[in-house]
Amino acid sequence: MSISLFKKKNNSNETTKKSTPQAEPKLIDTIDIRSVSKARSWVGELPMMDMGETTRRLFAGITKLNQEPVSPQIRIDVTEILLPYVKMALENLDRHFQTRSFPLPERSQKVFDLKRSLLMELAGSYQLAALDMLTKNSVSKKKLLVSIGRAIQYMSSVIVNDYAVYAKNQKTIWHDIHHLYLLACENKIETKEIPHKDDVNGENFSIEEQYKLINLVALAAPNTLRHGEVTKVREFFVKTLNEVSIISNPDKVKSKFAHIALMNSDEPANLMPVSDLLNSPTSRIFDLSKVIKLIDQFVSLSEDSDLGTHYKLPMLTHSLAKRLVYVLTTIRNRRYKRFPRDEKASLVIKMQDVITMIRDNEPESFMDQINEDVEDDNIYEALAAEDNISSPWSDIDVEALADEREVQIHSWQIENSSSGGYGLKQVKNEASTARVGELVAIKDPNDTAGLWQVAVTRWMDAFKNIGLKMGLEILSLHGMVVQVDEISNRDISQKLPLEGVLLPTIDGARDEANLIFPGFIFQAEDELVITLGTRQQHVRITAIDDTVGNFAYCKYEVLEKEESADGSLESFEDVWEFL
């Protein structure tokens, strides 16, 4: 019986052993593209009708290639075979990518991460081949030209994609681009034509032109650009690339400041004092004088355009051009000392919600002062006289107010603040309507008056799994809602009345009052009849600044009332009342 039991147990083990399934090999382990013939055969079997599976295989294939100890010549040849298929996969990924909100929704973030990884593996293959050739002293100028050119091109694509979603660049990517360009210069191939240029996004760029282009885009301060503008900026620099020259000797620079790339750093070119630069072979100076002159000319040409455009540079707008001139010619030092903070502030984002919140929180005592005690000519001066006005805001339940008015009130963490603005980060990593250039109202918890300050988003950075950070510039310590009832000098298609925000003069803070309206409705010299509280005023817009935000930031003057001629019906108005 004991023998029988032993046999059964033994049979049981054998059965178990036989039924254990053998683990399937990973996809990457099944790929062998270590030769040109194998690579051609492998891409011929890609299921092109299933782009999801094709992308998966391509990503695994190029990752495997980067792990294989093959010669640099074979690595380049195989990567060139994969390149058209990888480009198709990248184009397909773009169809599934949406940037309607920031930080990116989960699905869009995954697509973005995959695209970035695929581009980095592609660039990495070319970079590895170039370094191998130079290390092993087996340099083919033609192969080196292809490998360095493609590597910089696709690293540049990664950087532009990052800028488009306000993401930070990967560490070492700028160091790698500088290093590759320096290697091209040492081998005197930086200005040579790259073979099969049609494989590089259809753009016929040399290594030096690619290097110039990505540094120029970086000089535009991408995290201060409005959504979608980074593509327009790149398009502009593509068109004007030949107007930019690279100088290696600082002695040839006549100005005190220049756009300089330090090639042993992990940063793009920046505007800095020339005096800080030693005569070094690891620095390059970009001469943008001709481009800046072109932008200045465009600003003048588009000044009177209804939409701020001009056919000569259709990718630019008047606003974008003026902001480009500013960032390309101004060293941006902080005007105000920042103080670290760790408190939550309430935010209202987008103009209509800002208007609603301001209207719902206007102090009755203040409006009474405007409506009853102020002469017509001094309505706007009254807005500065706030010392004796009690504030009813302190005890307002903003969350309840949001529910009642359908206004979205967001809670953001204050990281730092100054007299000029705030540095904020999201309390929770979630989709936000925040945009660069958007009008914002912020309620600071340290403000005992509970004022809703009017601000604009100046910059924005997005961090994966963390959320957004943004900088606000305060436009005014408070605002008032105004209504445009009539435009008296011309006809417009916009239906009236239309609401906007008045930013009053404030002693020591604001020297002049301004009006804010939605963009592209009014223009300079428009004469408006506006209502503040229950009082009407006739004003003329004297200038509109479209660089402050994605709205019309207006200067204006108050028009005197036209006096009625003696003997006219209107001149006896007070008599009718008396009688």
From TrEMBL:
| Domain of life assignment | Bacteria
Biased-composition ranges, Basic residues, are 1-10
Location of the region described as Disordered in the Swiss-Prot/TrEMBL record: 1-24
What is the protein name for this chain?
GTPase
Look up and give the organism this protein is from.
Cocleimonas flava
